[in-house]
Design a protein that fits this description.
The complex is a heterodimer of chains A (220) and B (144).
Chain A (H helix, E strand, L loop, with lengths): L1 H10 L7 E8 L9 H5 L5 E5 L10 H5 L41 H5 L5 E4 L2 E4 L6 E5 L5 H5 L5 E4 L2 E4 L9 H5 L6 E3 L2 E3 L7 H5 L5 E8 L5
Antiparallel strand pairs in A: 1-10, 2-5, 3-4, 6-7, 8-9
Chain B lengths: L7 H5 L5 E2 L9 E2 L9 H5 L16 E8 L9 H9 L6 E4 L2 E4 L9 H5 L5 E7 L11 E4 L1
Classes of the chains: A alpha+beta (220), B alpha+beta (144).
Amino acid sequence: MTAPATAAAAAAPVPKTKVMKRKIYRDMSKCILCGRCRNVCPTKSIKFTVERRGLCTHCNLCAEVCPVKAIDSFETKFKPEDYGKKYFLTSTYKDRVIKFNCVKCMQCYEKCPTGAIRLENNELKINKGDAGASIINCSLCSLCCIACPTEALKFELGRVKLYADLCVLCGECVRACPPQTIHLKDRYPAGYCVLCGRCVRSCPVGALSIKTESWEGEIE
Amino acid sequence: MICIRCGTCVRVCPTNAIKFNPITDTKPTIDLDKCVLCELCGSHCPTMAIPVLWNLPVRKLERHTISVDRNLCIGCALCVDACKITLKGDHAPYIKDGLAYIDEKKCIGCGACATTCPTECIRVVKFYSPKVVRGRAEEVLVIP
């Protein structure tokens, strides 16, 4: 009795009620646009875009990397969730300057996510303003794997894997990517999320987490 | 917000998981076996009826064009009924001498009339800002 029952079950599979996938979830109400996750991502799958480059997002990253504390940190003066996001709340720090004890190690210049620190007359200066930045992760949609003609990119165990010996360097995955995180690095595709969780650990305010996204296929 | 039956999600879906017959169905149906959770339909939906917005931001419609091929029009007035859902009673298409015309001042470019038209004589071209989201439908979306 069991054999025909299983055969019937195989012939008519139960339609799914839910589609689920594990993804990196970014809580945009907490994100301070500091770009730390972008810096630690091993596959460069996090895209940081600014409307206007060269303006401060008040992420406090420069104050943290400074070895001689030449930049005022507002770490103890605000709650972690307040800084960065609220430009007007931090407007008392719009006069934030780099003090005279700066040793010009250029750490802040390198780490600034928007390039707001500039070198002028042998002195570092910060451009004030609101950069209008946004951060987009790889959404693990596996469209790159569907677009790949040689199955060099595969979606296995919830991660995107690249089999580099099969890759023919055609760049179809770059064209298919909706969040535009995939790019060609040394001619091979890069920028797909491997769910390593480094970005989750690097986030100072806990905006990132690995969650299971599910959708019942409902349209209101 | 509620679904306005515009059919944008059907055009956008890269895996053809969304099916919609505008004359018989009230809403698009989704084949969950094919869905890969890419969220393109959610980011394109003009009324946010598809609530999946984890990674992609909402796309902005920059401009649109709409045209009616009156050699094919049969004057069925289904486009008028389709538009009444979007504009809440008001309608941009109207029937004059048995043929459809479109009031371009009222039209917001959702594409509901073009999806409903049984002879496919209405054509809507949507132009999106290409900066943030790409996917199969890049900057320009043509309905139907």
